[in-house]
């Protein structure tokens, strides 16, 4: 227990929409457990107007000092105090446009520019709105009031309990929150509209700016379904009287789980049946489920410190898939989990510069960096592995015990292992610590000899020069032969008797590891791939590992392509999607090589076989994943200038101009093809469509396509356009992400970043996670000189909070460079 801790915050804010500032007044009830003459709390970018403390019936004025570097506000008293006291602070802050703290968001309605004010406090930005103990463990209750202009309304975590007219303003008072962490507090002021429904006693609303509430219908339905799903799964009721889902025009991440007032990017909450794609629909469901899962995992029970961030994010990730799969089994969400989670987790964690799930963090800059594929994807995968190991029922019961024991308080990873271990009577802690405390994951080498199968493990690394830490994992091993699955906890090399024709290690890809088969075993498996005697997930797994073995130089590129040939009759979405992504990776990686045409030819043949089965228009009762596959394959074929694809895309695009009609699932791919084969007049047309677009989803599609032209002059124009006011900061990354997959554009990105770095940093603000995505985009580079150049540049222009991402990017470039060298040798 800390020497001084908060019990209740009474907060009043009065935003000023002319000056974009706010006045704040707070009274914090605190408990001082050890006599002290100094109190330290967090504050940043605030001007403190007045500060006093009421203690034992007297009022004391402290000396105050705000250190902008440590973001600490120190109050020094002339005497020692202890026990209960009330701290009273008046302050002024900025409604900034950096998308953190208390910030403003701009939008247009009826042709006029308008603003709203909203908050984003995770991980450590509540201190930008009011002085507080801005750490997850310092839980307190909050009484919020907002004094706003007459035409504005106000939103916070709890329902409004009173609304009073004061002069020209309205004072909204909100009910007291449960005991909770500062990063979950929420405030909003602006002109909103909403639609609502009820789930049991809970009022659910979808809130938007004016003119958009009808696009919230789908989300309202999802919210109702997922809220009730989680109440049943956890067997703990959602404790607040209301749940708001709020669409914010400017938003740094995708969504934020503020208790009772979840915020979203518009593209992740608003759905327009005429223009929104299947992908958008499924993504909306997933993100809503993710944020609602946080209402238990994160809000009710919170990690003690950010090193255990995974307790929040991995659980929300894992539970989201569980919930969506339960309600929409036809979307095959556990299969899609391989693409959305497993791929990114295995990929990042195969770098030396990865980090363990449980990682020491101190500063806010450290914390921001770990919202990554380790805390989300790898964590989600190891939970799937654990659930599979102890069984669904033990898993659910263990979670219940953990949530109940720590509700309205904080917990650690150890607490979770205790609960799951005691319910399942399995060595959960021993096993899981090898996955959570160690960086990396194993590759199991499988060798057969004399009717025996020998399995051994070592760390899987893409850049293996013997210098990185090795490791040892307790692996819940599974080996399938035919209908039989053998399971074992594997710590050391083991030998299993083996008589069958084939075996597949890591059945159903439940484990977070890769497998390397000897030649004979792989050959036997290839036959099962062709005949589809093994599941789609196992077929995915074999290809996925083969690709990684190629990138890490353990098999040749030719051997990899030979492997792909066994998938010529493949028809499953996740398997094909993985192969297409991998082939597209080589397409871009090798675009400057003499033998590029050979690569293109290989891809063209493969993609055309896939497309032949799909066609342009959805078949009756086809799976929703076919729509996803169709979009991917059309975009890929467009890049290869397949004539049939280009012709048909043009005719459909022309029809869009005439009738305004175009299948939402084909919009993204068709814009891409049109751009790739278009000239400057096409560019103007597309820019016009961007300017006229009615939804952000449509804008993002068009913006990305502006990065898909071949003419470098046009691409440079897009890069410049990206930094104009016409592109929201939140979308700045989109065209860059596309540009690096464009063989004509990829070389333009690094010079552009270098030239505009200052501007980019000031636009985002130091510590913005979007900055890391910009740095990460150059990991497509593939020569050693570029790696040096990037390293030198960022050494000179260092920004705190980018260290990890930079190291990972440099490592990926070295891996690419080595790969290109070895492929060149194969082709020479
Ligand atoms: N808690 C996060 C939001 C967040 C991210 C806050 C980074 C501070 C820094 C939220 O629950 C989340 O995970 N959002 C995701 C969407 C999710 C479905 C992957 C996001 O914003 O990308
Ligand atoms: Zn989350």
Automatic annotation (TrEMBL):
Cofactor(s) required, per the database record: Zn(2+)
Domain Peptidase M1 membrane alanine aminopeptidase: 219-435
Active-site residues, record numbering mapped to chain: 291
Family annotation (InterPro entries): Aminopeptidase_N-like_N, Aminopeptidase_N-like_N_sf, ERAP1-like_C_dom, M1_APN-typ, Peptidase_M1, Peptidase_M1_aminopeptidases, Peptidase_M1_dom, Peptidase_M4/M1_CTD_sf
Superkingdom, natural source: Archaea
Family membership: Belongs to the peptidase M1 family.
Entry protein name: Aminopeptidase
